[in-house]
Amino acid sequence: MIVVFEVFLVPGADPDTILTDEIKSATKAQLMTLDEARKVGFAGLPDQPGHDVRLIAVAVRDKAWIIRTLEGSDAVGQFKVHDVD
Predict the structure, then answer these.
(1) CA distance linking residue 12 with residue 5, whole number of Å
(2) Domain layout of the chain by residue ranges
(3) Sign of the four-CA dihedral 36, 39, 44, 46
(4) Alpha-carbon distance 67 to 28, whole Å?
(5) 2-84 CATH
(6) Which of 18, 32, 77, 81 is buried most deeply by CB count within 10 Å?
(7) Which residues contact 45 (CB under 8 A, 6 or more apart)?
(8) Mean model confidence pLDDT for the chain
């Protein structure tokens, strides 16, 4: 089971600032655009016109860490959490 975070960036935010290299390395998080996610098999993703959206896929064990990180990020306007079987 994985967790996918649907992250809506604030206008003008740099998506590379959402997760540090340390977090990406420790969690093996995948940070993707919607197009990149579709290419690796995430189906049924609707476009989000007018929004800059990134998806972050991580193992369930890292869910709380990513939530804390997103809540503290100035680049993140809001996010949704999706548990995926």
Answers:
(1) 20
(2) 2-84
(3) positive
(4) 15
(5) 3.30.70
(6) 18
(7) 34, 37, 38, 55
(8) 94
Contact 65, 23 (CB under 8 A): yes
- Record the tokens describing residue 53, joined without a space: 């959206």
Q: Residue ranges of the alpha helices (H) in the chain?
A: 21-27, 34-39, 63-71
What is the average pLDDT across 59-83?
Answer: 97
| The amino acid at 60 | V
* Cα 53 from Cα 34, distance rounded (Å): 7
For the record, the structure tokens of 70 come out as 């997103």
Question: 43 by DSSP, 3-state: which?
Answer: coil
Give the residue, 4 or 46, on which the prediction is more confident: 4
**Quick one: tokens of 46?**
């609707």
Rounded-to-integer distance, Cα 79 and Cα 62, Å:
16
